[in-house]
Specification:
This protein is of the alpha/beta class. The protein contains 19 helices and 19 strands. Strands 1, 2, 10, 11, 12, 13 and 19 form a 7-stranded mixed β-sheet that branches. Strands 8-7-15-16-17-14-18 form a 7-stranded mixed β-sheet. Strand 11 and strand 12 form a beta hairpin. The longest helix has 24 residues. The radius of gyration is 22 Å and the shape is globular.
Length: about 500
């Protein structure tokens, strides 16, 4: 059968790409190897609780200052009025042996919080936020004019942006004279990226922190999978086709141009454009014959470093968050605020860092009355997990690690949760390989580092279409990793596919 576009993978990024092209009156087929849509968002029911594998459900609020904001994307997909949100009260709570502080919304509130921790920090913080605002405006200009950049315009209006764009966070903060104690607080959200202050670009991190603090965060009441279902229903109602249990084993090429896909059962679907909701690694090492892979694609994959791997412990507790004494949505636990030192600890089998989400403090009725749901996460930066865990000891070690995370959380946050556990589900990097075919179990995309930071990715993204008619979307796309970023990737990839006609 012939289609205008085939989308492989029904994660939210793939769904949004499919709808974007359907909006342009294209005949679109969406394929997924699983028996359900949603990609990484699918939930698992255990007793009275429904755990969702994806916990990356933070969204920027709608704002006139943010193009391609979440609400704008959902509006283009015709589901904006159906998705309800709960607004978070603060960014997160940081817990270390030396400092514990809650990061608030609002620039003035943030400066006041840091000033209380480090008196005399206000001047350098004001400099930081003014520079971050210029970087945000400049980055917005670059994103929306990347095909016809006027470098003289950038030089005239965003001179400071040009000066800082090649450098890391730590380099720029040193240059503006920010005290080290303040830098450590500024950099406390580095774990969202999996890159330290000496690796991640200043532009990328400063704009992220500014947006989070200034615009706030929300979570969808219907959860990530609910958003997936709304997108899928809208796609079907408007004439799109979805075929589940349809595993694509290879792309069909004709004279270095995509021509369709072949399924595991031999079925062939033809199209002049194919969008794959996956990673460049999977596309060019699994879906295309080795002799047909362009040399430039292989070089691109080889120069990139996979981001960290996730180990998650989902808990269903028979006590409410009020009874447990947990009043924050996100807790980030470090053994210190030096991100380089903390990153090194992620090379150990038992890393001491945690990223914890207390779901009921986002959506109150996400679990039955009198109960609560918590997800504890730790990350591995290298293959230490697979180096230590083997078939003979997998279950014992995984269970021991899960309870070590629970014990550590109880001790550092000074709460008791172990005795109230009713249901538990552990998700390891190996599970993430099986669930989402993530390369080496890395769900956080390619690591942001040096020449592979956000700005170089944006500018180089058009050069990554190595085969005519083939596009890649999702968390491994040119944008930074994150749930919001994967939605943006779906929209921008669909738009790029439209432009490919011209």
């Amino acid at each position: 059968m012939n289609y205008d576009v085939i989308v492989v993978g029904s994660g939210n990024s793939g769904l949004i790409s499919a709808i974007t092209l359907l909006n342009d009156k294209r005949k679109v087929l969406l394929l997924d190897s699983n028996n359900n849509i949603g990609g990484f968002n699918k939930g698992v029911v255990s007793g009275r609780f429904e755990f969702e594998t994806s916990i990356h459900n933070l969204y920027f609020k709608d704002s006139d200052k943010v193009k391609n904001s979440l609400n704008e994307i959902l509006n283009k997909c015709s589901i904006k009025d159906n998705v309800k949100f709960s607004t978070l009260n603060e960014v997160c709570k940081i817990v270390t042996p030396d400092k514990t502080f809650t990061i608030p919304f609002g620039i003035d509130n943030y400066i006041k919080m840091v000033e209380e921790l480090v008196p005399g920090s206000e001047e350098s913080l004001n400099t930081f936020f003014e520079l971050a605002k210029e970087c945000r405006e400049a980055l917005d200009y670059v994103v929306h004019n990347k095909d016809y950049l006027d470098y003289e315009h950038i030089k005239d209006y965003y001179n400071n942006f040009m000066r800082v764009s090649p450098y890391s966070v730590s380099k720029v903060l040193d240059a503006i004279g920010m005290p080290l104690a303040v830098q450590e607080i500024i950099n406390a959200l580095w774990i969202y990226f999996g890159s330290t202050e000496t690796e991640i670009s200043f532009v990328e991190y400063a704009v992220f922190l500014l947006n989070v603090i200034e615009y706030g965060l929300q979570v969808p009441d219907e959860r990530s999978y609910g958003v997936s279902m709304m997108l899928a229903n809208n796609f079907l109602e408007r004439g799109g086709e979805i075929r589940l249990n349809s595993k694509v084993v290879n792309l069909i090429l004709d004279d270095d141009k995509v021509n369709g896909v072949r399924l595991v059962d031999g079925t062939i679907y033809y199209a002049d454009k194919v969008i794959v909701n996956s990673s460049l690694t999977n596309v060019y090492t699994k879906l295309i014959k080795a002799e047909d892979v362009p040399r430039a694609a292989i070089k691109n994959i080889q120069r990139r470093e996979l981001g960290y791997k996730l180990f998650s412990v989902h808990l269903g507790l028979n006590r409410s968050v009020e009874e447990l004494g947990l009043d924050k949505y996100t807790y980030i636990l470090y053994s210190g605020l030096d991100s380089d030192a903390e990153s090194t600890k992620m090379e150990q089998f038992y890393p001491d860092n945690q990223f914890v989400v207390v779901h009921n403090n986002g959506v109150k009725d996400i679990s039955p009355a009198g109960t609560s749901m918590i997800t504890l996460n730790t990350m591995f930066m290298v293959d230490c997990f697979s180096d230590v865990v083997g078939e003979e000891n997998y279950y014992n070690l995984v269970q021991n690690m899960a309870f070590e995370l629970i014990r550590s959380f109880e001790k550092k946050v000074e709460v008791s949760i172990k005795e109230y556990i009713e249901e538990i589900k552990i998700v390891t990097p190996l599970d993430n390989i099986k669930v989402g075919d993530y390369p080496d179990g890395s769900v956080f995309g390619y690591k942001l580092k040096g020449h592979d930071n956000l700005l170089p990715r944006i500018l180089n993204n058009p050069n990554e279409q190595y085969i005519k008619g083939l596009y890649v979307c999702g968390g491994f796309d040119g944008d930074i990793y994150g749930y919001s970023s994967s939605l943006v990737s779906g929209l921008t990839t669909g738009m790029e596919a439209k432009k490919g006609d011209k």
